[in-house]
Amino acid sequence: MGMKQQEEYDGDGVAAVSSTHKMVFAYFVTGHGFGHATHVAEVVRHLIIAGHDVHVVTAAPKFVFTNEVHSPCLFFCKVSLIHFSLIQA
Questions:
Q1: Which of 58, 17, 15 is nearest to 6 (CA)?
Q2: CA 89, CA 87: separation in Å to the nearest integer?
Q3: Cα separation of 52 and 66, whole Å?
Q4: What is the average pLDDT value for the chain, to the nearest integer?
Q5: Residue 68 in contact with residue 56, Cβ under 8 Å?
Q6: Does the residue 15 lie in any domain?
Q7: Do 21 and 53 touch, CB atoms closer than 8 A?
Q8: How far is 42 from 45, CA to CA, in rounded Å?
C-alpha cells in the first residue's frame, strides 16, 4: 500500500515530507533539567510539520516546547516525575 507524499516547508525553510496518513505519537521525556526536553522539542516540531499529532508526557514546563512549537497538533500530559534510572560502572 503506497502513501501519497508531499513536501512542505516551515517558516525556517526546513523541508518535511508529509504523508496522507496522519499518525499520533506519545513522546515521554524526563523533566529533569531542560536538556532532554529541548532536544525533544525539535523532534516534536518536525513530527508536527510532517502532519502528525504529538502528545508529550513530561514533568518539564510547557514553555520549553511551546517556545518552539505553536500548533493545535501538540498536546501535553503533565506528570509529577519521569526519570529513567541509569547505573554507570
A1: 17
A2: 7
A3: 16
A4: 78
A5: no
A6: no
A7: no
A8: 5
What is the CB-side half-sphere exposure of residue 76 using CA atoms within 13 A?
Answer: 18
pLDDT number for residue 59: 87
For residue 24 the three cell numbers come to 499520533
pTM: 0.67
Our count of domains for the chain comes to 1
In terms of Cα–Cα distance, which of 5, 10, 8, 46 is closest to 25? Answer: 46
User: How sure is the predictor about 8, in pLDDT bands with cuts at 50, 70 and 90?
Assistant: low
- The residue segments making up the domain with residue 37 are 21-89
- Judged against a pLDDT cut of 80, whether residue 17 lies above it is answered with no
Q: What is the DSSP string of 43-74?
A: HHHHHHHTT-EEEEEESS-THHHHTT---TTE
Is 25 within the bounds of a domain?
yes
Q: Is residue 12 part of a domain?
A: no
Name 26's bridge partners: 55
Neighbours of 30 (CB within 10 A): 16
